[in-house]
C-alpha cells in the first residue's frame, strides 16, 4: 500500500462507483457499468420485440402473461481503461499551508486509481513536464499498481507544461473509448494545455478535468507579502495595492467562468477542487455527483 492512500479517504470512496458517464467499450468483465443495453449480466428493462431481434432474448413468461413479445434487456458490465493525466509543471508547486498542488494531485490520483483497480479497471499514468511526457501505459495487475503509486510519489513539479508535439500521438491508437482524468491548475502562460484537452475531446474519450485551486490564490490572501513570483516564468508582480486586489478578483472570476464554459462546450466534465477542502470530502462529493449523473 502506498503512503499516499489515506485510510480516511479510502473509507469515504470505497463503495462509490467510478463509472464512465458515456458509453465505453470494455475489454473484460468488471464493476463499471456501461450504457450499452443488450444481453448482459444485470437486468435493466423490457422493450417490445422488433423484427430482427435475437429470439434467444425473448421473455416467454412475459408473453404468457400478456400475449405480447418482449425482449429482456440488461446492462453489460465492463472493465475500462482509466488514464490519469497529471500536470507536473512548476505552477503545481504552489502551496497553501502544508499542501502543494502537486501533493493534492498525488492524493487524488492515488485514491481514484485505487478505486478503479478495486473495480477491475486498468489504470495508467501520464505526467506532463518540461516539454516531455512520462508514460505508464494502462495495465491491470498488482505489480502495475505498485509502479503507479511509486511514480506518483516521485513526481516533482518543475518547468513548463509539455508542448503538443510530445503528446499528439499517444491517444490516437486506442481502439476503445477511455476515461481520462486530467488533474491540473490549468495555468498555461503559452496556451500549452488547451490543445491537449481539445485533442482528447476530438478522440471521443470521456474526459474529466479536476481543476486545483488554492484558497490563498482564490482570496488573494498572502499576508505579509508585497510581491509574488510566477513559479514558471519567474516574473514578479506587486500585490500590496487594494486596487490591484479588486482587479485580480474580477479577472479571476471571469477566467474561472470562461474555463468551465469552454470545457463544457467540448463535452469535457469540469470540477474545481479547492485545496483547503479535505480530500476525502472532495472525493466523496465528486463521486456522489457522478453517481447521480449516470443513474
Automatic annotation (TrEMBL):
Residues 45-252 form the DUF58 domain. Signal peptide: none annotated. It comes from the Bacteria. InterPro entries: DUF58, vWFA_dom_sf. SUPFAM superfamilies: vWA-like. This is DUF58 domain-containing protein. It comes from Filimonas lacunae.
Amino acid at each position: 500500500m502506498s503512503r499516499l492512500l489515506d485510510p480516511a479517504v479510502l473509507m469515504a470512496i470505497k463503495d462509490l462507483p467510478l463509472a464512465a458517464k458515456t458509453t465505453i467499450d470494455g475489454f473484460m468483465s468488471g464493476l463499471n457499468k456501461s450504457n450499452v443495453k443488450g444481453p448482459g449480466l444485470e437486468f435493466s428493462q423490457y422493450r417490445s420485440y422488433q423484427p430482427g431481434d435475437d429470439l434467444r432474448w425473448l421473455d416467454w413468461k412475459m408473453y404468457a402473461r400478456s400475449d405480447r413479445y418482449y425482449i429482456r434487456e440488461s446492462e453489460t458490465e465492463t472493465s475500462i481503461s482509466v488514464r490519469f493525466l497529471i500536470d507536473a509543471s512548476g505552477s503545481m508547486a504552489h502551496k497553501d499551508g502544508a499542501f502543494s498542488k502537486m501533493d493534492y494531485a498525488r492524493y487524488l490520483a492515488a485514491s481514484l486509481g485505487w478505486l478503479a483497480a478495486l473495480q477491475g479497471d486498468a489504470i495508467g499514468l501520464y505526467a506532463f513536464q518540461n516539454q516531455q511526457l512520462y508514460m505508464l501505459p494502462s495495465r491491470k495487475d498488482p505489480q502495475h499498481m505498485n509502479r503507479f503509486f511509486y511514480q506518483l510519489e516521485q513526481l516533482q513539479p518543475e518547468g513548463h507544461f509539455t508542448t503538443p508535439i510530445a503528446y499528439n500521438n499517444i491517444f490516437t491508437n486506442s481502439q476503445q473509448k477511455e476515461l481520462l482524468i486530467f488533474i491540473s491548475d490549468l495555468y498555461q502562460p503559452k496556451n500549452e494545455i488547451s490543445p491537449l484537452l481539445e485533442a482528447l475531446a476530438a478522440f471521443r474519450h470521456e474526459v474529466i478535468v479536476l481543476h486545483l485551486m488554492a484558497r490563498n490564490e482564490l482570496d488573494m490572501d498572502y499576508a505579509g507579502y508585497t510581491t509574488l513570483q510566477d513559479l514558471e516564468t519567474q516574473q514578479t508582480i506587486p500585490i500590496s495595492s487594494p486596487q490591484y486586489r479588486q482587479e485580480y478578483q474580477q479577472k479571476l472570476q471571469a477566467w474561472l467562468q470562461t474555463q468551465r464554459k469552454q470545457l463544457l462546450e467540448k463535452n469535457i466534465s469540469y470540477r474545481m477542487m479547492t485545496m483547503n477542502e479535505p480530500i476525502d470530502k472532495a472525493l466523496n462529493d465528486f463521486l456522489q455527483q457522478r453517481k447521480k449523473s449516470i443513474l
